[in-house]
Amino acid sequence: MPLCLLLALFSCNPNEKSTEKGIIILKDDLGRTLTLKRKPERVLPLATSMTEMLYAVCDTASIVGRTPNCDYPATVLSKPVVNNYPVDYEAILRLKPDLVFTTEGITPLEVAVRLEELGIPVYYQKYGSVEDVFRGLEDIGKIMNRSQQAKYLTDSLRQQVTKIKERHAGTTKLQTVLAITWKDPIYVYGQNTIFTDKLKILGSQNVVKQVYDQPYPALTRESILQLDPDIFIGGTPEELEKEFFTMYPELRKIKAYRTKRMYDPTGNLMERPGPRVVESLLELEKFLYP
Amino acid sequence: MLLGLQVGSFESDFKVVSEALFNYNSNDTTHFAIMHLRLPRLLLALVVGASLAFAGYLMQAMVNNGLADPYLLGTASGASLGAVIVFFGFVDMVIAGIYMPPVFALFGAFIVTLAAVALGYRKRQLIPSQLILAGIALSSLTTAILGLLTFLSDSEGKLKSVIFWSMGSFERASWDMLPYPAVAVSMALLFFVFYQKQLNILLLGADRAQALGVKVARTRWVILLTVSLVTGFAVASSGSIGFVGLIIPHVTRELMGSTGRWNLLFCAFIGGFFMLLCDLLSRLIYPPAGLPIGIITSFFGVPFFVYLLVRKSYNFKD
Fold first, then answer.
1. How many angstroms separate the first and last alpha carbons of chain A?
2. Is A150 a member of any domain?
């Protein structure tokens, strides 16, 4: 009976195939094919967001380590630390993970190739929208034999997102938002980031509409003047006055500055795609509709 | 120059640019962008290009070597280290309302240059070969410290700051910042127009220059002080931009002869103009932020220089 259940679970995942000898073949979000000798029982995240994803779905005993920056949930702090920049291959080998989870853009592909040479397959996820994060949670559930837990979680999260969306469904005049990731040079959240999707759910829009090659493009002062956002996300008005507008006094002409609509997001919520994406939406909602 | 004023995020043709210049409307954001963002940027590119080319010319004359450039004494790596110390949070970003990276860059440039001079000073004389070696050693040391800080960096943003600083950018240009490098290079140019004769004699070698009545030791000190000041301000305002200080002096000599009377002014002019062109190209190729300017100066400068070398066998002291 358990075997039947296992096979049934495998068949749920279109990206996963089980061969006769028990070897599992997976396809990750980058389209890479991974071969696992058995169902993974020991997993290691190599990105802070991935740690949050795994903690939300997996049995915590199966998570064998964390990166130096992983700090959520608090219990993760008791796990052994593995350096992810540069990657400490020996530390990873010592922890004997069956599978390493990471996200696109955090772990270079050559690191994955090296780890696979050492017998440790690496599964990449990538997210372009809030829905992608939920799908990511479900994929982890299927791989880790925790589909039910993942489903409960994503159902609840999707319901909350639907409620938030409904609150702003009738918005006619969409507020424009600019969020920065770095002040000198000025780097911003571009069009092809989850941030854009979060704003869409909240009945507003990313002021950066042009699609750049990079998810976080650099902008000039002139282009920001031209975009003239209604809302500026990147710090409290006091911090921004001291560290941003002193440096770029020309930008005091933008609407967000003139109307004092500048907000300081919780860094981890903005930056990490993970199960706390709804918390991030609720925080942004407070900024957009004070 | 006019084309440079037209390129940007706001649509602006020649008519809009001339309106902004001669009939400025402070409520018009396009006018504001032209006068407060594009114009200071163009002028800064001109000034920095002129500063580096001029400082390079002086440095090559002082050490009597065509491979010298304004960064020979570690000025650029010192400036980069100074700025990076601020970016990495060792010092507050803004103190008393002043943005600190350029200030620390200036300090870094002067401290490293002074250290190189101290090491190159023997028996009450500046010895060029020792000076060069001291500069190279100190550059390596500061670059290593810079590398260490970069390696230990905990955020991608900090790395981007380092990249932009080490390859140069005019995006920070403003009317407040412009006077420092502009006044430094103008004063220095004016001074050396009258001092050029000594420079040309110095090219004959220290002994012969001495025999011809040039006070070699004093001349070297004057050059050193000028180069440090002009380069320090240039690097502090726009990061370190390679190539210009090395090659433009050679282009000048190729076109005007080794001892031309107007060489220094011409060198500064060509340097400024070349930098202006590079900035324009960087913004046209990769809008809106522009590629780091150091990449463009090498990409477009090197082929031109190779052409000059091939067209006519050129020698440093011809």
1. 54
2. no
